[in-house]
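User: Predict the complex.
Assistant: Input components as received:
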Amino acid sequence: MGLKTFDEYYSRLKKMRRNMYLGGERIDRTDERIAGQLRVIKETYDRAHDPDWENLSTATSHLTGEKINRFTHIHQSTDDLLNKQQMTRLLCHRVGGCIMRCMGIDAMNALSVVTYEMDQLLGTETNQQFLNYLGYWQDHDICANCAQTDTKGDRMKRPHEQADPDLYLRIVESRPDGMVVRGAKIDNTTAPVSDEIIAIPTRFMTERDYEYAVAFAVPADWEGVTMLVRPAYHHKRNHLKAPIAEYGDAESFTIFDDVFVPRERVFLDGKADPRQTPFAGFLALLFAHYHRHSYTGCKPAVSEVLASAAALVSEYSDIEGEDHVRDKLSHLIGTAELVFAAGQMSAYRGERSASGTFMPDEILTNAGRRLAGEEIYNEYKVVADLAGGLCAAMPFEEEFFSEETGELANKYLMRNPTVSSEDQHRCFRGIENMIISEPAGVMQVAGLHGGGSPQMETITMMSRYDLEGLKSIAKYLFGIDRELPKYDRPTVTPRKMLDKFKKRLGIQ
Amino acid sequence: MGLKTFDEYYSRLKKMRRNMYLGGERIDRTDERIAGQLRVIKETYDRAHDPDWENLSTATSHLTGEKINRFTHIHQSTDDLLNKQQMTRLLCHRVGGCIMRCMGIDAMNALSVVTYEMDQLLGTETNQQFLNYLGYWQDHDICANCAQTDTKGDRMKRPHEQADPDLYLRIVESRPDGMVVRGAKIDNTTAPVSDEIIAIPTRFMTERDYEYAVAFAVPADWEGVTMLVRPAYHHKRNHLKAPIAEYGDAESFTIFDDVFVPRERVFLDGKADPRQTPFAGFLALLFAHYHRHSYTGCKPAVSEVLASAAALVSEYSDIEGEDHVRDKLSHLIGTAELVFAAGQMSAYRGERSASGTFMPDEILTNAGRRLAGEEIYNEYKVVADLAGGLCAAMPFEEEFFSEETGELANKYLMRNPTVSSEDQHRCFRGIENMIISEPAGVMQVAGLHGGGSPQMETITMMSRYDLEGLKSIAKYLFGIDRELPKYDRPTVTPRKMLDKFKKRLGIQ
Amino acid sequence: MGLKTFDEYYSRLKKMRRNMYLGGERIDRTDERIAGQLRVIKETYDRAHDPDWENLSTATSHLTGEKINRFTHIHQSTDDLLNKQQMTRLLCHRVGGCIMRCMGIDAMNALSVVTYEMDQLLGTETNQQFLNYLGYWQDHDICANCAQTDTKGDRMKRPHEQADPDLYLRIVESRPDGMVVRGAKIDNTTAPVSDEIIAIPTRFMTERDYEYAVAFAVPADWEGVTMLVRPAYHHKRNHLKAPIAEYGDAESFTIFDDVFVPRERVFLDGKADPRQTPFAGFLALLFAHYHRHSYTGCKPAVSEVLASAAALVSEYSDIEGEDHVRDKLSHLIGTAELVFAAGQMSAYRGERSASGTFMPDEILTNAGRRLAGEEIYNEYKVVADLAGGLCAAMPFEEEFFSEETGELANKYLMRNPTVSSEDQHRCFRGIENMIISEPAGVMQVAGLHGGGSPQMETITMMSRYDLEGLKSIAKYLFGIDRELPKYDRPTVTPRKMLDKFKKRLGIQ
Amino acid sequence: MGLKTFDEYYSRLKKMRRNMYLGGERIDRTDERIAGQLRVIKETYDRAHDPDWENLSTATSHLTGEKINRFTHIHQSTDDLLNKQQMTRLLCHRVGGCIMRCMGIDAMNALSVVTYEMDQLLGTETNQQFLNYLGYWQDHDICANCAQTDTKGDRMKRPHEQADPDLYLRIVESRPDGMVVRGAKIDNTTAPVSDEIIAIPTRFMTERDYEYAVAFAVPADWEGVTMLVRPAYHHKRNHLKAPIAEYGDAESFTIFDDVFVPRERVFLDGKADPRQTPFAGFLALLFAHYHRHSYTGCKPAVSEVLASAAALVSEYSDIEGEDHVRDKLSHLIGTAELVFAAGQMSAYRGERSASGTFMPDEILTNAGRRLAGEEIYNEYKVVADLAGGLCAAMPFEEEFFSEETGELANKYLMRNPTVSSEDQHRCFRGIENMIISEPAGVMQVAGLHGGGSPQMETITMMSRYDLEGLKSIAKYLFGIDRELPKYDRPTVTPRKMLDKFKKRLGIQ
């Protein structure tokens, strides 16, 4: 057991309760409009059975020693982080975009640390519950969504100050056997094809927000859970099949309408125990941290996917040798390399937390993710620049295959004479999918906001960075201080991050 | 006569030959998939009958003294250029994007100058033919496409060097009563809803490319003309009607399969008279010049449309007062102001050509258009940034109106409590149309490439700029030259531009 | 009378009280270390007597109808603003940097408006006093500094909240014959060579800051005024004389140690009449407005000076035709053009205030100035990029003229063989002055902060921009509002700016 | 032996022949104008004797097993590269700029690889000569300059095509006991305080440039070597001593006037053996590679030094909590982190060459160095932005200590009341040194060009990057290729780099 096939996973999905709505109808997990997302998830199961990918796509469970899908693994070492990052990158190359399954395991890693630390500090017993749940995950090769973003109402008000108290997900009742939650989570990528939904807080909570300090997991079709599904997919291809055209996204607007969560699936409950309230922010940020580290894998891949298209169309238009083309490609490549290196070095600089879970460096992870987010729109610009206007004005596929227009359409598509008109067609059609489509729009926004917009990374960096240490350099150079204190580098290790958290939580 | 209504124009379209293909079918001009583009063109007819718009949307024909639609007018003064620019801007506000009808009249203005200059230099009689054609335009309030972009084959080869000689549109036969042309033009916005197609060259032509020195006008359904239509439109709205959702684009891949053009509609014929060959480049660049000046009207409008959405969503999320929000809005606004001002000053610096047609300043027009192109992707980034992830994850319209999910969907959409959930919905739905859609992708590419990509503007600027004049400043300051020559500003007036062209053409 | 020569002006300076300190010594206005700044000011007197410059450098006094130096003129029309802007630009070309004399006249224009408006609203009689003072200015061709920037103490506190109440210049006593002021003003360019110092407030003042609502003019050597002078100048050249090497800056840290100002030189006195307090901010911003408009003249010139050096060194290294060189030059040129056009259009959009003084458009002036400030460091980067490392590693002048090393030094300096080694030397020596020197550092900082840093322009733009008008576009497009209100462009005219001010001042 | 003290080193310098010229005079190595550079070099000797720095500043010779200064060490492992990078960073913090001693050892590492590979391929015996020379280096703790940049004459011509054949350093005669060289090298940082000069080629050489394929080492005062010294230093401080003010740079324009180089100090001689010619480019690029890796240590330090000043002045002005301040600081910090991480990961990805010398990853090293170069001017902008205009207008030190002006000058300097006016003074004085000074100008240019300008890194990256591998992603996604080839990351390892070189050299 442990590793499952795509078919095993898919057969689970097919049995699920029909709690998803799309276009005014209640739909199954087999609805064609979310097939693109399933195609993406399929790669994560298939590669785990591919001998070439063994080191990347599988790992050894620290619970059982069994071989498991890396998407169900709690990182134990630098190598685990490196392999996760590289797996993410290479899978994204294969689907031409976001691999989507990272959210669940990023939440699980965060929970593994936070529940442990909370138990240590408060004497709670949540970590064992978590480990039981993790066992279930690894046994069934679970695909999960992490539902973090609340609808948030008025941005200038805290959760308990909102006109409608449900605008952040909250605990309406806590009792020994579990709790009842109400609210909604949005922007839930992958939720429509997930086995499980893991809900966690979206921000720090003050004492008065204790009802909003909530984390738990439920099956995606659990009683009271309703998903409003927003898909994004490509025009169906009838002639020129291609992986890029099969890519699809689906997002869920997930409503929890007085959902009962059994106690063994509760990981944070500020209503039952208000002392747990500060751990809401800890969990929110630690998930963000793992997720941003995942972005140091996927975002370089997205840059490379865009760069590969830009390079190919430049070859096909025979402009590959032009200076400006090489400059632009090189910029994309450089960004990919720097972001990936930031993630790798975050792994090398990583540390083991008390729970045993391995944590990447925080400043660097955020610096890397931020660069990626700042560049994403520019990367689309470069592809459009090198492809030229035709990518936005390509007649549909049928015009190239119809008897009346096909011959002339293909005749005039020719560029570099060494490239067939079908390949020219495939190239422009692929770029159309990549930059002129709803999935393209979603990828742009996800590239900017996913895992936190550049602004969030700035905030995280500045709240963690050793600014006084930095200033000591100027104080020494300007003669204000006599000595330059022994000083490594002006950043914090993961362990210091945990210490800062604890300090912020008023403990220690 | 002169001004026509939308209905009069549309009734012409309905009578046209069915020479358009879309999705493997031959279609009418009434096909629903191009209705969005018709809705855009409709504004240009409706406003011309709106008393509030009289100064902007109509003009006085310099041929007849009659009141005509400004989209059929040859600019006679600074005010004409200013009014054209402002009309363009305000019309774009009304449709939420490109107004599309500028191409035709930009080509006509270029032809008015080039045919005149050519007649002066070569003793030809093309200008009178052009003026006759212009009379027809003004009488019928013609909507036209300018077909400029050739398919171009191998970018490293000139037209006559291509493996297939048809990869640039060419004259296969020239005879007294007209000529026969073969080739294709791409990226032809507006062509699917145009009365006429004006074809002009895409670049400078060398002596050996004389067959490619070709310009003419034909009705859009002329014998031998076939259009492969590529539409981009929004999801149909069933509940929340809104102008933004009715916007649509349609591009044509236009094939000229041995089309006969009557002599009175021929404006450039290098095959009959190779001396005309150098005027191909003159015409190509002059059209680009007028078209880039139009972009100083539409692009600020696009920036403002994006900025208005960014400002509105910031108000609705109650973050309008945040520093970073004001910084970002201010950047968009500043770009719009600078680009528009560049166009206005180009009008003030403009000059009358020998033909009587008024020409805007070239360096400044190009500098303005280039800034707009460089910023377009960043502008989309700002909207996405301020709107947040939900714009890419909004459930479809029906979920907010269905009995099963509507109430909760609307409940959780609330933000600023002073804004109704329907308005919140309208705002996010509108932003979805604006940035997560096929038309959004097209607008991005058009914002970058339309009228020439930033690189083309750089080339134009540098080929026209008085670099030696500029260097004289350093030579004076560094003591290399004793005097700083009397020196205005290091740019050329339109008249000098014409002189440079003539010099380049080896005349004068 | 009216126009004076440099010698007349300089003889005034020579007679002034020795109230300046530099390097621990009390110095004269003839000190060699401020000769560079005098050389700059000299251009403003010399050009006014140069027939070629008559239209630019002189104007007709609206008080007397006499011919005066434009640096003493109150703008009466669009043409006055255009001529002032162009004069500024061309003078900057001649000195290779800031022309420095604009500050005084910018303050005078602001005072002409504010004193008039204040009189209208409060029934005071300050404008006539101002006009008398202006007459004196025009008669004597006065060179003045505007002392605006207070030392400001703790930036998070208002003037009256500071630990030391003198950290903003304040009125310690107000009496019928005048007032006594105490405090200091910093960053006072030109003050060391000025006849007069005009002091104005640095920001808006609240009711409780009424003692800080102060404006006046005094001779630069007035009793109680002490200047700490900070010069920046180039290495003295012994062999290769060049205008660039004669450029110099001098800044003053000006201390007002209980200075008595006679009533006829007082323009704002919140201590005597607290109703005047709100006019402090009005005056501060209006000076900034005129000064930023001057920057649309000088900053394009600085960009052009840098671009001219970049172009020349590219020619001398024979890389002028390289793509990347043309891209970079074109970027500098484009910025110069856009900023200058913003200033020109601000003049065209200008309006006459009730006082008769002409005012440029505010949004656009700020947008232009801001772009210039954002680009300044990048412009230095481009010069360094194209010049290569040698500009920072050039042996001193003497090495090229000494018997022992001169021959070989010159031999190895050769690049483009058509350029003599002396000209090569002049070019690199000039670039050294331009980018590797104290004046270069000062120019960078002045380019960023002078007239207000980019952030200040953003604040001004956003406080004046018609944001609700802008949002009406989105409201219409999204179907929230049925109509798009008749709408010109989303900016305010100068007159509306004045109305806004009055509204803000609580008057109507 | 091995480790030497600063005094031992300095006593060597004092004995050297007076072959340096400055300001028309022949000078000693004790000239005060180069004292700032000696102060920098002193740190590299002092720290090697500081127990806290043992791991960083010293290493174990792979030749002798003795403890040596890391600046004389050939890298044997990832740890060596990491320690070198971190040493460089921390030393730069201590001097407030470039540490300057890296050049020599970067050249030595490159020679260790190239001489070995050449011997293998050509059967020459250069590597042993090199190792002998290295032994001398390590024994004497040698400080050396690497003279790479030729004067280059006309940039569009190759060395042998120049009007004057000496514009690239060349071998005028080669004989058994050595060779005679003629030419000049420029931009030679550190040369004025170096024991030795190592000359290497500046670019690839074609067959016809065989006389220019030259590398060797000579003592810096060797017969025929003349240095024209260009110093940059700060105003002498009399009151407020500070490390930043003691920093100085000195560059040499080094002339080789028929210099005889003994055979045992010759490392490349294309005149004697034209087969060695292609190794010129190999050596040029490999030195650049090691030097760029050093830049991933020093450039983050420069960013941190600037950021530390920006953070300190923000605290002193009490604006540290403002959003825009944190944004700007965070940008500097993020750049430093990313560039440093790029260098670290280049070490982790490094490989041992056949010679035993360890080599960092090339693509990533270049991507990191390039980012640093692109940002340097912006970093100065941020410091100026946060410091405000006063940094460019500070009265000289004496004004704050004189009896007449000191008290008031200090009174008005106060900002944050918790900071003394002396510390305020020190802070602004330090920033003045940092951004308004000749050394500041030199640091800007060095930050851009040192080790290769951004353009050179782009060229290197693109000539080494696996572009076909990258394109295979698009080919797979677009359906052009069926399979995505097993693919690691689209970059080359150092070993592949060597293979590419050999292939390019036509060997294999």
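Chain A has a mean pLDDT of 94.
Let me know if you want any component modeled separately.
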